[in-house]
Amino acid sequence: MELRQRALDLLQVADPAAKAAAVRALQADPPPLDVRAELQPRQALPGRPAAPRLVDPMALPRRSPFTTAGRAALLHAIAHIEFNAINLALDAVWRFPALPEAYYRDWLLVAAEESLHFTLLAQHLATLGHAYGDFDAHDGLWAMTEKTAGDLTARMALVPRTLEARGLDATPPLQKRLAQAGDARAVEILDVILRDEIGHVAIGNRWYRWCCERECLDAGPHYAVLAARYGAPRLRPPFNTEARRAAGFTPAEIAALDTGP
């Protein structure tokens, strides 16, 4: 089985636990890679379970970590992000042909690490008496993945280095609240996620700049063009500037954060 075809096959798997386990196994022992294969999905993407129900983000209630149910709902929201992140990384592997082998290896690694994150969160949810699918969720991350399906440069600009980078900003305040609620294990899991997400955003930055160089584009101004073209959300403070620097954002990009995309 060829690597990109296998990534597409796993993207179509609906069961989250099975998908996460299979992705980690694929990354541990990857098959040969054919960068030029032209692939087609057999069904609508992505494969996902019937639950959670997907609703408008404004329909989701605020989640307090200071009750068990509220903490479970909050962690469920993070698990949903990580499940979608598995899907978007698999999509990056199969969808775009004729790129350097390192590109596919990078995104397979991302998929495997997102799979670990989802598994850790699902296990912790179980200790709170809940499972993935128990709460409503929204589809913002995958919606941007679909919007950028025909534009690799936009995909790299707006999914990892915009939407996923928001997690770098949101995680430390969330960890503080969970620590105040006495959930030390959730804080530990978010430590793992934050560490890995810095690397994932760095991969997005690296391949975005590679795309811009290939197309003779100025990466800074072109980002604003893409953000407007595809309706990227306005970035709002507070910003985790230390994590963003570690993920490869330039001083000029960090200085521009307050004005948004």
Structure description:
With 261 residues, this protein is mostly helical. 64% of the residues lie in helices and 0% in strands. The protein has ten helices and no strands. The chain has helices spanning 3-11, 16-28, 68-95, 101-127, 140-147, 152-180, 184-214, 219-230, 241-246, 251-255. The longest helix has 31 residues, at 184-214. The radius of gyration is 18 Å and the shape is globular. The model has no long low-confidence stretch (mean pLDDT 96).
Could you write a compact summary of the structure shown?
This protein has 261 residues and is an all-alpha fold. The chain has helices at 3-11, 16-28, 68-95, 101-127, 140-147, 152-180, 184-214, 219-230, 241-246, 251-255.
